[in-house]
């Protein structure tokens, strides 16, 4: 069972930045593609970004392109989600997820087998 733990959430002002981390508790992530998803109160979960197991392929949801980025450090068993130019509508619980694949990655939450508990991001002035 892969255990994922997110950190780095908190409060930010509009236009600010945060870096979220996702770490695997007891193994490396080099066999897994990792996705980031978020859920705002009263809204459906939505995809934010994903990264392939090698870290060479990334995909960011259209609404976040140019503001968010995802990188992977397999040696440190971590994946980072870089949030810049934050907006109030970015507020929500951000969760990382993983599935074992030799292919790229996916913004479809249904393919992911493992999920972290999430970290809260609040953007407010």
Fraction in helix = under 10%
Q: Please report which band the strand proportion falls in: under 5%, 5-15%, 15-25%, 25-35%, 35-45% or over 45%.
A: over 45%
Mean pLDDT across all amino acids: 94
The whole-angstrom Rg is: 13 Å
Low-confidence segments: none
**What's the shape?**
globular
User: Tally the helices: what do you get?
Assistant: 0
- Main beta sheet strand tally, sense and closure: 7 strands, mixed
Tell me the span between the first and last alpha carbons: 40 Å
What structural class do helix, strand and pairing data support?
mainly beta
Q: Total number of β-strand segments?
A: 11
Order of helices and strands: EEEEEEEEEEE
SSE topology:
Blueprint: E1 4-7, E2 10-12, E3 18-24, E4 32-39, E5 46-51, E6 58-60, E7 68-73, E8 78-83, E9 92-100, E10 114-115, E11 119-123
Parallel strand pairs: 2-11
Antiparallel strand pairs: 1-3, 3-8, 4-5, 4-9, 5-6, 7-8, 9-10, 9-11
Summary, kept brief:
With 125 residues, the protein is mainly β. It is 0% helix and 47% strand.
Describe the structure using short key phrases.
0% helix; 125 residues; four-stranded antiparallel β-sheet; mainly beta; seven-stranded mixed β-sheet
Structure description:
Strands 2, 4, 5, 6, 9, 10 and 11 form a 7-stranded mixed beta sheet that branches. Strands 1-3-8-7 form a 4-stranded antiparallel beta sheet, with no helix packed on it. It has no helices and 11 strands. The chain has 125 residues and is mainly beta. The protein has strands spanning 4-7, 10-12, 18-24, 32-39, 46-51, 58-60, 68-73, 78-83, 92-100, 114-115, 119-123. The model has no long low-confidence stretch (mean pLDDT 94).
């Amino acid at each position: 069972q892969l255990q994922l733990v997110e950190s780095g959430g908190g409060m930010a002002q509009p236009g600010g930045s945060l870096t979220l981390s996702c770490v695997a508790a007891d193994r490396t992530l080099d066999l897994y593609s990792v996705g980031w998803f978020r859920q705002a109160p009263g809204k459906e979960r939505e995809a934010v970004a994903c990264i392939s197991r090698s870290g060479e392929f990334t995909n960011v949801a259209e609404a976040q392109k140019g503001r968010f980025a995802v990188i992977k450090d397999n040696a440190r068993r971590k994946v980072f989600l870089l949030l810049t130019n934050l907006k109030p509508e970015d507020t929500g619980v951000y969760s990382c997820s993983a599935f074992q694949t030799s292919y790229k990655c996916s913004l479809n939450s249904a393919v992911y087998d493992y999920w972290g508990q999430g970290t809260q991001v609040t953007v407010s002035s």
